[in-house]
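Re: your question from the hallway

Yes, I did run it. Sequences:
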Amino acid sequence: MTDTEILTALTELREPAVLATVVATRGSTPRKVGARMLVGERGVVCGTVGGGCGEGEVVEAALELLQGGRPRTVRVDLLDEPTSWSPAVCGGTMDVFIERANC
Amino acid sequence: MNPTPSQVAALVLEATGGGESVHTAVVVDASDSSLVGRRWWVSGDRQGGTLGSAELDRVVARGLVGLFAGRGATAALSRNFVYEEKGGEATAAVYIEAHHPAPALVIVGAGHIAVPLSRLGAMLGLRVVVLDDREEYATEGRFPDAADLRVIDFRDPFAETPLARQDRVVLVTRGHRFDYECLVRVLRMPEAPCYIGMIGSRRRVRATHEKLLADGLGTSDLRRVRAPIGLDLGGQSPTEIALAIAAEIVMLGAGGTGTPLAEKERIVERFFAD
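Structure:
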């Protein structure tokens, strides 16, 4: 998803949504700083912060924020053992900032 | 009111569409936690919102040029800033995005390679412009993803298409004579595009280079031309060739080598040697 696509999606939201942005990474992570995702009440609207269980954590936190609360940073740990076959085998951590996108 | 991400997105699209760059900033952590989520943007001499402290806005504004120096494309980063607040020092982690007008991919020649290349270019976030002197080829039906289609005269192909340093030019016209006409003009531009590619066999490229030298250009100019164009993927169809061209554009823009990662990393040889 290009910069223009996510910006366009942000301006065309028809429902309350949360914007999740990768703001810092350490070690090997699937997406780099600047990756963004929009989450609505029914889940991911568009974009990705990396997929797998790391993203699941972010989606959960975003759904919670839709119910209320202050913007915050979610730290996602991708340090599982590579042989566990979990999707989180990249070996890094990332900070994902979540905030309400349109209200 | 703190501008929302949606409001700032609308502003960024409007500004970059009009050829302006925008920097947006949001506080993601701070010694004063009430600042978290505060947002500020600047574009030329316009700005809006605030990071919650006029002094912090100023510190970030001063840092922008140095932080993004040498990063041409849209970029993002986080930095910790220290600023004066109520006689003491306060700190804030700020996430900043730099948004620039999309670089153009100017495809000269609306033939069979231009069609898939236009799609790939748009998918890569480039503003695709297709030029040809044949009106029946440079059509919206053939190029639904192109931001601009122009019927041109090869005697002055870029008359209405100003090219900038961050743009990419691909020469795939129906004849090498036309490719040459375009190439010699691009090479003589004071601010030539960062990518200049031209299709052609070894023999054709050699003939073109000989002509460039005869016309007074130097070997340093020849080296600026990616010809034959594209990475060596081995593909033959128009789509495969377009992919090889797009791959080369990505590689040069992102500083890659084009080497298959498996060959670069050699995991088996390095870690599983017999």
